[in-house]
Write a structure and sequence with these properties.
The protein is about 45% helix and about 15% strand. The chain is an alpha+beta fold and about 160 residues long. The protein has a domain at about 65-150: His-Me finger endonucleases (His-Me finger endonuclease fold), CATH 3.40.1800.10. It comes from marine sediment metagenome.
Length: about 160
């Protein structure tokens, strides 16, 4: 037996029940308009009253910081907050280059990644991550920096 069919209250098309959003207070357990029509309605409402939706979004973000952080980590680096926390714990909450603990820093430890392949490496403090980014992982340039600092160490 196949999936049930329902008629959308807006577009009047026959659609599979899975094409309708869940609404538990309805007899069918589904919304009366299909997901496509609901999306069009929501887009129109957001356009007509953007301030209302901006405020609601900001309020939700403040109430759900872990969900926001998780979404950003997935979007930016392809890792979850749980994976970030595992890395954090493996590094004892410290930058792997300078050794500063998270409690000494203003910003969270940054996810370092290889820009060529996008491979996640480890967590760095903002300063170490910035330096590494500025030298573009150029080892010979870093060696020149070391020579320079050693040369002028006693000045």
């Amino acid at each position: 037996m196949g999936e049930k069919i329902k008629i959308c209250s807006k577009c009047k098309q026959n659609k599979f029940i899975s094409d309708f959003g869940v609404q538990n207070d309805r007899k069918s357990g589904r919304r009366s308009a299909c997901k496509d029509c609901d999306a069009i309605t929501q887009k129109k409402r957001r356009k007509e009253n953007p301030d209302k939706y901006i405020k609601a979004t900001r309020r939700w973000q403040l109430q759900n910081p872990d969900k926001v952080r998780n979404a950003k980590l997935i979007r930016t680096f392809g890792i979850t907050l749980e994976q970030y926390n595992e890395m954090f714990n493996e590094q004892n909450g410290c930058c792997v280059i300078c050794g500063k603990h998270q409690s000494e820093l203003k910003l969270s430890l940054a996810v370092d990644h290889n820009h060529d392949g996008g491979n996640i490496r480890q967590l760095l403090c903002n300063h170490c991550n910035l330096i590494l980014g500025l030298v573009q992982d150029n080892i010979s340039l870093l060696e020149e920096f070391i020579k320079y600092v050693k040369k002028h160490k006693d000045i």
